[in-house]
Amino acid sequence: MYNNLKIPFLDRRSTTNFNNFSNSELEQRLQESERIKNELEIRMRRLHEDLNAKCQDEKILNSKLYELERKNVVLATENKEAQRKYELELENRRTFERNLDEVQRLLDNERQVKNQMGVTNREWTDKLISLERQLNETNEKLKIELDSNIRLKKQHQDIQKNCTQLERSYNDIHEKYQELIAIKLKFEKDIINQQANFEQEKTAKYMALDKIQELEG
Predict the structure, then answer these.
(1) What is the 3-class SS of 28-44, one letter each residue?
(2) Measured between alpha carbons, how far is 204 from 30 in angstroms, rounded to an integer?
(3) Residue 127: alpha-carbon gap to chain centroid
(4) What are the backbone angles phi and psi of residue 2, rounded to the nearest 5°?
(5) DSSP 8-state assignment for residue 14
(6) Which residues, 6 or more positions from 64, have their beta carbon under 8 angstroms from its beta carbon?
(7) Do residues 162 and 138 lie in contact, with contact meaning Cβ atoms separated by under 8 Å?
(8) 20-216: what fold?
(9) pLDDT digits over 5-28, tens only?
């Protein structure tokens, strides 16, 4: 932003030797030095203002990065827990499916035996009713497990989606943060250079003043 500015500094010889200048030339050099010094002060002040603004931006981005990192830890924990629950529910569903198959097999066998033997006693009938009830209960439990599986799978997918979005946001902000740091370092370097130029102009001014006083004396 400021690197391309060309400042008409005093001839470098003027900072070390004014013996060849007349009083009027020294006055002119002094005015030019004062003008340059004032211009440098303005530019340094603007650089400091820009640097302060970038420091504030850095604080804001740092805060955002910290918050994103915190959310990432929370989401990672939630994702791990959701994955664990999903796998547990999946195993429960498989268990219920096996139980359902077993109850269905027992019921089919009992019905087949009953039909083949023509058994109609109360005990056998109660056994069939019990197996049918068990089959219905297992079906209901399996339905609940399936619903739970679907819910947990969606929850897990949502968390993974949030993790992806969070990672994208973090990368974007981190990139902006790196760019900001580079700009901030450039401003700091510019301030150092401008400060050196400012001190040089002050030295030239004081030397010119001393020479004027010497000539007037």
Answers:
(1) HHHHHHHHHHHHHHHHH
(2) 8
(3) 64
(4) -115, -10
(5) G
(6) 173
(7) no
(8) Helix Hairpins (1.10.287)
(9) 444 433 443 444 555 656 677 677
Q: Are 209 and 30 in contact (CB under 8 A)?
A: yes
pLDDT tens string 24-78: 776 777 777 778 778 878 887 887 888 888 888 888 888 888 888 888 888 888 8
29's CB contacts (< 8 A; 6+ apart) are 10, 14, 18, 21, 204, 208
- The residue among 77, 75, 14, 22 whose CA lies nearest residue 214 is 22
Residues 13 and 200 sit within 8 Å (Cβ to Cβ): no
Specify whether the CB–CB gap between 152 and 89 falls below 8 A: yes
Q: pLDDT digits over 84-141, tens only?
A: 888 888 888 888 888 888 888 887 887 777 666 655 666 667 777 887 888 888 888 8
Structure tokens at 184: 């901030």
